[in-house]
């Protein structure tokens, strides 16, 4: 929910001053860019605030006199607050970091601190939901239109191969405009997180461009497929979801308008093509499951169904351990970064 937060004492909006570089302060009469926040409901019932000024989470910084400032990339303890109802539309915020209440200190110009043992006037706030951004407010999505920023992409894949680029991913999303843009704020971010978690697992953090086990290279030939094997070409795993087999290269190439059957190496040569093949599978193929990965996420069937579609025959219904918990853990980490609950049905 995009919202403006007001001090109930002076009726001013809370602002992430200087594009989030300075502590929060209740000193504004209108909610524009610096005064708007995405209110995130966490799985444990606490809430967090994502500043529209810089797309960072508000933290109660115990290393800086408990000042509230929008500087955190992910939600951890210092970024969580308990919302305490005070009646008449007012509420108090209790910081999980130290169990103290947030105060708009009027002796210090309205700067917000998490330093009060009890709540009264200066510790009371109201929230005004904004149906659409006010003039000057950054879009709730990054300017690329994709729900994940380049900074977040780099944080998710710190050791990625330079072949894989954020620009390549964003360019590829144009081929499947419903991807991560269906179902509203939470579902869009859950789908993006699910896709990124799975490609992280498949490629070792976007490190591998081609299948590591060369002993399998001559295995992926289906001579009964309508997509005929081109002499001299191999159809081993390539790209973020390690697309393999001649029938997948043929079908993906047909859907994307690319000569992948005759030139499968394109998937390992062009970052956008590589991402497009992954999104082709994600959005159109049921694999080992009963639905596409896109359907699984937008229909709230759970992250576990994406695992089943991608590699269910080898990974699902096999008890604990192995690849499934690794995929799930990565998904949960990315959801936390994007400020969204991961939902249920995480395993398969």
UniProtKB/TrEMBL annotation:
Disulfide bond is among the record's keywords: yes
Domain Glycoside hydrolase family 19 catalytic: 149-348
Keyword Cell membrane attributed: no
InterPro entries: Actin-crosslinking, Glyco_hydro_19_cat, Lysozyme-like_dom_sf
One Pfam family, short name: Glyco_hydro_19
Protein keywords: Disulfide bond, Plant defense
Name by which UniProt lists this protein: Glycoside hydrolase family 19 catalytic domain-containing protein
Organism for this UniProt entry: Paenibacillus artemisiicola
